[in-house]
Amino acid sequence: MDKLEQLYEGKAKKVFKTEDPDVLIVDYKDDATAFNGEKKGTIVGKGVINNKMSNYVMSLLEKEGVPTHLVKELSDRETAVKKVEIVPLEVIVRNVSAGSFAKKLGIEEGRKLLCPTLEFSYKDDALGDPFINSYYALALGLATKEEIDLITKYAFQVNDVLIKYFLGIGIELIDFKIEFGRYHGQIILADEISPDTCRLWDVTTHEKLDKDRFRRDLGNVEDAYKEVFHRLGIK
Ligand code: TMP
Ligand code: ASP
Question: What is the CATH code for 85-220?
Answer without folding.
Answer: 3.30.470.20
